[in-house]
Amino acid sequence: MDTTLNLVQGSGLGLRRSFLTEVIENPLNEVDFFEVAPENWIPIGGKLGKQFRAMTERYDFICHGLSLSIGSSDPLDENFVSDVKNFMREHQIKFYSEHLSYCSHEGHLYDLMPIPFTGEAVTHVANRIKRVQDILEQRIAIENVSYYAAPGQEMDEIDFFNAVINEADCDVLIDINNIYVNSVNHGYDAESFLKAIPAKRIAYAHIAGHYVEADDFLVDTHGATIVDPVWKLLGKAYELYGVFPTLLERDFNIPALDELAKEVQTIKSIQQAWSAEHERLSA
Which residues pair with 172 in a beta bridge? Predict the structure, then answer.
């Protein structure tokens, strides 16, 4: 089974239809790779389909799923996984990642729901991840998610996350903003969580903005600029594990393309600074 590690490099951006034409006409030098939700692009043809093909011929791409519902008790949608496999082959997309959550129960729930942190859930989810990997014939990356309640909790979030990753033998999509949001909402230390991530399994990272509902309640919206504590946490991750590919997510209140480019450039600047630091320390 192919590994997903090290298949993209540098700094990335989530591609959205709203700026597809603009980014084709005005390429972003800061962006090394793009990410798309396959659900939003598999059925696309016509002009948009041709534009997307032009992008995948020029840049490296990752698929980041929204609807696999890996933690659901519903049957795994193997037809969808096969569609993703064909889509990835058609566009030479590097690999696939998904959320450690579920979004269906006898129908779609249209939100990412938290999986109970239990031993039974570990086995259930890991088996489903293994099946996805068997169909795709490659390892996938699983993302730590933001959550606002922990029903039926038997273990800490990090212990649950690591147990799933180890039992499924999959890779990690580390979401820096989700770590920060959860640390505030659930009262744990973000750096301690970060230090417990299985470093050798990190394929790439997400970073995004959030909404401040209250001092002790943050909402992961992907609809705002990234705040300093999240940037600092990204730097801490590079300090601990070396520099890994990192992608900016922005789904709402999408600003002008030059503003997105500035945040991607911030990622690149932090990567370059920590690469230089690691080189200095190893000299």
Answer: 142, 202
What does the H/E/C string look like for 206-235?
EECCCEEEECCEEECCCCCCCCHHHHHHHH
Residue 5, in any domain of the structure:
no
According to DSSP, residue 75 is labeled P
Rounded to an integer, the average pLDDT of 216-236 is 97
Structure-token pair, residue 258: 């030059």
Distance CA 146, CA 246 (A): 18
Residues for the chain: how many in total? Answer: 283
The CA distance from 195 to 193, in Å, is: 5
Contacts of 279 (CB under 8 A, 6+ apart): none
pTM above 0.70, yes or no: yes
- Angle in degrees, 0-180, between the axes of helices 46-58 and 78-91, rounded to the nearest 10: 60
Calculate mean pLDDT across residues 83-91: 97
Q: How many domains does the chain have?
A: 1
CA dihedral over 141, 93, 23, 44, signed as positive or negative:
negative
Q: What CATH code is carried by the domain that includes residue 35?
A: 3.20.20.150
